[in-house]
Amino acid sequence: METIHRVIREACKADAEAFLTYLKTIGGESDNLTIDEKGLSFTIEQESEFLDTTAQSHNNLCLLSLEGDTIIGSLSLTAPSRPRVAHCAEMGISVLQAYWGQGVASALMEKMLNWAKNPSTGIRKIELKVRVDNQRAIDLYRRFSFVEEGRVFRMLFIDGQFHDGLSMALLLD
Fold this sequence. Notes:
CATH topology: Aminopeptidase
Number of strands: 7
Strand content: 25-35%
């Protein structure tokens, strides 16, 4: 019987097409994300360029969790280049629904934190927004020492309804 291995690695430009497909899938599986089943409106070339630029940045990161050749989760950190705010990265994370509860998100978080804590990144704060009713995600972030900073009113608008969010953050120093 063949064993399928899971790995976490940084995304590269060759992942663009598979990543865009993954984003459409997760967008259709969950109302907890800012994207829907349409995914992103990027072309493969645009996504390839974005992933390449991210990979070359000292304070931006895109991680993929793969089972074999299939993307099952992703985590991104995006920090601005302006010096006054370059220390503060925004995090986004997602996992295919079939893999919820299997430790994929925790593994991505651990890998990201090991990377972000390296002084060369310059990152000193990680921020995220999460729906107030997404308790599983809130519990995950709290396990990694994220704290609530405030409520984000009308964060998402889905099927004619507004959904509030929480702003959460982790200070790295």
